[in-house]
Amino acid sequence: MSLQLYNTMSGKKEPFEPYEPGHVRMYTCGPTVYDYIHLGNARAFVVPDVIKRYLQWRGYKVTHVQNITDIEDKIIAKAAEEGVPFQVIVDRYTEAYLEDIERLGCQTPTVMPKASEHIPGIIDMIERLIERGHAYAVGANVYFAVESHSDYGALSGQSLDALVAGARVEVDEEKRHPADFALWKAAKPGEPAWDSPWGPGRPGWHIECSVMSTHYLGQPFDIHTGGADLVFPHHENEIAQSEAATGKKFVRYWVHNGYINVDGEKMAKSAGNFFTVRELFKKYSPQVVRLFLVSKHYRSPIEFNEEVMEATERGYNRLVDAAELLRELVPEEYVGELKEPVADEEASRLVQASQDAVDEFVRGMDDDINTAVALAAIYDLTRQVNAAAHRAQAGASQDMLRALGHALHTLEALTGVLGLELARHAPAAEQPAMELVRGLVQLAVDLRSEARRERRFDTADAIRDRLAELGIILEDTPQGTRWKLSAPDREARND
RNA sequence: GGCGGCAUAGCCAAGUGGUUAAGGCGGAGGUCUGCAAAACCUCUAUCCCCAGUUCGAAUCUGGGUGCCGCCUCCA
Fold this sequence. Notes:
alpha/beta, Rossmann fold, Four Helix Bundle (Hemerythrin (Met), subunit A), four-stranded parallel beta sheet, four-stranded antiparallel beta sheet, RNA-binding
């Protein structure tokens, strides 16, 4: 069985085959840089990142383009509101966005083009559309004529008549058809503008994605992703423009992710019920946020609330704890793919468990990137690893250590495909401080161990309690006392 | 009005014709421990309602009920 992907265009899961064997080309609608990204935006970036990582893991080369919209009405509005130059807004939020997706564990896309860098290509495409009779200029505005494209409405499953009957399309005397949309907008005084055959202005929203995607990926390309709210009109319009301009199919698989809900309602800027990811990072580590996002199938809505976030954090800690235990236990040279089979019966059971986890993980991911199933496979293996590791703490055969090393490798590989990293790490800025913390904690732990040996349990417990208040958890094992930070990579801990 | 989605345990969430209905969080009991913590073990649902199809349905069909989304900027 191979990867099945749900295609919004057909409304069905379809077997995935790239246009060019072995090489997947995908495009993701990136942010408009006028504000910090919120959790809903984050999902639209994490979902394609998971798809990309899975494809890579399955051996495909992936070229991934994710644009940055740096020309847009909302940016102009924000600049006016703050009374600062347009570019200040663009730079500030571009930088913040790059930082946010990196912390979320997203690989840097192969190319991150900006609309402002593709004006000539945009003008070319508009000219071609006018030549082919798909667009018309009215003064310095240019519109796409939706009636000229027979397939208009195919992606959203709506006929042109039905779309107009919805009657929320803005009335505009200039347009030949109410659903016609702007390819080029005339600049008003003071607005950022680029020269064009129709006068100074800026591109409409949809045209940049058509131009940039096909510029880097050709036409057709394989996968186009975005939030479900982009199906109409954004993606519908992208298709119309691109196919009208070239006569070729635009995109082979349309992938749309579901929303994040708050109190049952879609999280959105306009609704005001959103959480920026940087706010969330103060309370939860970026890894926990990412785990939360992949805990449900990408097309379903996810309800956001504190209770679920906390449950997610506990689950994440369990995964990390298991990995850390293995790292303590297994000599480094045993971590990795198993080179020779193990003879020991218990060890071979664990090897089998690792294989089962991989099989189940693949089964889930192949079924339209079912990350919930994939995660269940990871948790299953974690449980078995813990059981074996705790027994191994009291002494283990070489075979067992090799099997544990293999299991650790497996856990890291599978969580890695989801973009998760099983490690507690303090933010880089805190690294020097961590050295000091390690020393001080060890000092306290040593003093407490001495107290325990002398059966002065009041003192021992007091030390443990005080450390707990500081966010340091002690665990006594037969081999001595281990310690860990309770919430290691939250942005700031003020508890 | 048009189009689409969802309803599974206290919470989150898989499962789309036949299995003991995955997994996580929480809860109860147990093992281990000076006590804890962690970990492991056991237990913790008959699938919104009704009517059909079928030898057999959470899974298919029809009808309800409830919730959500798109049709306007939106990830």
